Amino acid sequence: MTTTAHAPTLAETVAALERVYPPSWAASWDAVGLVCGDPGQPVRKVLLAVDPVAEVVEEAVQWGADLVITHHPLLLRGVTSVAATTPKGRTVHRLIGTGTALYTAHTNADTADPGVSDALAAAVGLAGPLRPLEPDPGDPDGRRGIGRVGALPAPMSLRAFAEQAAAGLPATAAGVRVSGDLDRTVRTVAVSGGAGDSLLGAARAAGVDAYLTSDLRHHPASEFAEQGGPALVDTAHFASEWPWLPDCAARLAGALADQGDTVETHVSTIVTDAWTRAFAPVPPAS
């Protein structure tokens, strides 16, 4: 006798996901949750991606996904129209027109235990136990929070760590940038997926040898380097958050299995980083 896997409804799928990443954990300014979709529609295929851009939505449609889960919100800032004359409006129309739901887990996934930065820490080679770089004051256990601090299995040079990080993350045009003596020894590292220069002070206070994050701006990074302290490793924003997607897929599948449901998941490998090419200066002819 064979049993047929039960496809959950969108409402049941969202409920399972929100048990893992409760929306109440999101920052007050964030826009997380269900963006579009009929709660009663069945969900058999789920595609996960960092950004809800047109290329990702088209991949989902062509694969036959019933639901797209992204880390970044489609409608983070208020809008007065979703007319198809705008990029976001065209995305909404394409989703609704094809019966494809969209859900966002953003800062609630950042602060979760495990969350975005746990996956980043694993991708660049840190070993446990990990602790939050900036703990969530609402977590009495002190496990949730933004960023993670951990140690390498063995000390290595900053150069070797940067090369290891680059190898463990998706390739992007920007690659990995480093500020600091490439020969300095790195044992402990703080990481934070996504834009992380607001946590430079926390990284210094953590006493780590290096801080890996994304979108470091010139002046904060320059002043940080002049004051001494951890080396800086700057990655592409997309690259630092992509490692969370397989973990999210696995946790969603597990949460659904607990209620007797099954879905097929697929992690998009489309590089949605904003920068598509980097050019090195050409040395003058001698």
Automatic annotation (TrEMBL):
* Keyword terms of this UniProt record: Metal-binding
Q: Name one Pfam family in it.
A: DUF34_NIF3
Sites where the protein binds a divalent metal cation: 71-72, 110, 237, 241
Source organism superkingdom: Bacteria
**Do the record's keywords include Metal-binding?**
yes
Q: Does the keyword Ubl conjugation apply?
A: no
**Molecular-function GO terms, alphabetical:** metal ion binding
Cellular compartments per GO CC: cytoplasm
InterPro entries, A to Z: DUF34/NIF3 (IPR002678), DUF34/NIF3_sf (IPR036069)
Q: Please give the family membership noted in the entry.
A: Belongs to the GTP cyclohydrolase I type 2/NIF3 family.
Q: Which PANTHER family match?
A: GTP CYCLOHYDROLASE 1 TYPE 2 HOMOLOG (PTHR13799:SF14), NGG1 INTERACTING FACTOR 3 (PTHR13799)
Subunit organization: Homohexamer.
Record-given protein name? GTP cyclohydrolase 1 type 2 homolog
Q: What is the lineage of its organism?
A: Bacteria, Bacillati, Actinomycetota, Actinomycetes, Streptosporangiales
